[in-house]
Amino acid sequence: xxLRRLGKTELQxxxxxxxxxxxxxxxxxxxxDLIHYASAQGINxxxxxxxxxxxxxxxxxxxxxxxxxxxxxxxxxxxxxDEQYFRTRDxxxxxPAFEDLLRRLQTDYIDLGMIHYVDSRALWEEIAxxxxxxxxxxxxxxxxxxxxxxxxxxxxxxxxxxxxxLV
Length: 167
Fold this sequence. Notes:
Elements: E1 3-5, E2 12-14, E3 18-19, H1 28-40, E4 45-48, H2 53-63, E5 71-76, E6 78-81, E7 84-87, H3 91-105, E8 110-115, H4 121-128, H5 131-141, E9 145-150, H6 155-164
Parallel strand pairs: 3-4, 4-5, 5-8, 8-9
Antiparallel strand pairs: 1-2, 6-7
Helix pairs in contact: 1-2, 2-3, 4-6
């Protein structure tokens, strides 16, 4: 598996990553086996934007024996409410969702704390100067997040985030 340096970090991540968005639709054992198989093939980066408990539990069980070999990308602002995905910047949901992520992944840190789904420059400005960024920075200072990033489908918003120096 070829590795590449990830952005401004020193992390050497596999060119192919593991995204487990579909894990909740399959038997737990299959998901765990697939995570083990991906690791055996040299895949070392895993994205967990999904807030559903089943996916997070499967990932936690799949990585527990070799956690240090994985770079985990977890999302801040992707939460679980009323038994479904709920994107929010409300700290009464953001904080417990992040704590749940760490608990279910059976780890005390993630490598990449992604501010979830920032699709406008205005939203980036709101986040950059608000409680979500303050929380993310506090988690980084406490060692629960190694690097901060942003997930976006909007190049203008992503560029604003990069230019801010916060991610």
